Structure formats: C-alpha cells, structure tokens
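Record 1 of the preview.
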Amino acid sequence: MTTDTYDTMYVGVNVFVMREGKLLFGKRKNIFGDGTWALPGGHLEKGENIADAAARELKEETNLIAPTTELEFRTLVNTPNGSRGHYIQLGFLAKEVIGEPENLEPDRCYELGWFEPSKLPAAIFPTHDEMIKNFFGGKYFADAPLKSYIVTT
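->
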C-alpha cells in the first residue's frame, strides 16, 4: 500500500474594513513584507472556523470587533509564493465593525491607515494585491501568477 504525500499549503484570512469610502490597511513591520501595506488578517489555525479566524485576526491586530454573522465572503486567491510557500488567501468584507481601530501589534505594524480606492498605497503587501483587485472588481476568484515575492522597502 502506498501513502500519498502532500505539500503543506497555508490559508490566509483577511478582512476588508471600509469606512466613509476608505479601506483600512496596516503597514507591516519586522516581518515578511516589512514596509508594505496589508489588509488586517493572518493565518487560519488548525480546527478553527474560517469566519472565526477572520474576526479573531481583526480583533488581535486592530481591536475592531466584527460579528461573524457580519463577515461576508468576497474573494479567494490561489497564491503560489515560490520559496515563501503556497497560500490560499480568503477575503471577507466586514459589513459591520464595532470600535475604533488601534494598532495592537506595534512590534509587527508601524501604523494603521485609511485609503481611498483610487489612492491606494504604492507598496501593497504582495499576496494581497490580487485580493484587492478582486474586491474592487467584483471578482470572487483568481489564480495569482507565481512570484518570488522579493520585497524591497
């Protein structure tokens, strides 16, 4: 009998928070993508529900509370990252959030910022670029091109 072997894939959960027509980002610090702007989010943990993971990551990073019933699935991007690993990125729109954003991870985030869709920052975290295009373009799925994701700041 043969045993199948599978490479590990990672699942990223990310949240689109819109207020007054602007999208919330955090500027990454001391981690992969240092100096780039990213959506609030992180990794799905083993045994965790996806919406719970999205709400947890949003709370851990920004102190915003998004009831899981108010998280609407918006996009899935298959992101083979070369040497960084293969990711499936899931994006959710927080239709309702409670609170004001705070940078709760100053060791991993320089600052939080709101950006108009027509004036997004030039340095967007590389695995989020396709998600953001999908979100504003009304697409639910994309296969991102294989990239090495070498980030320079």
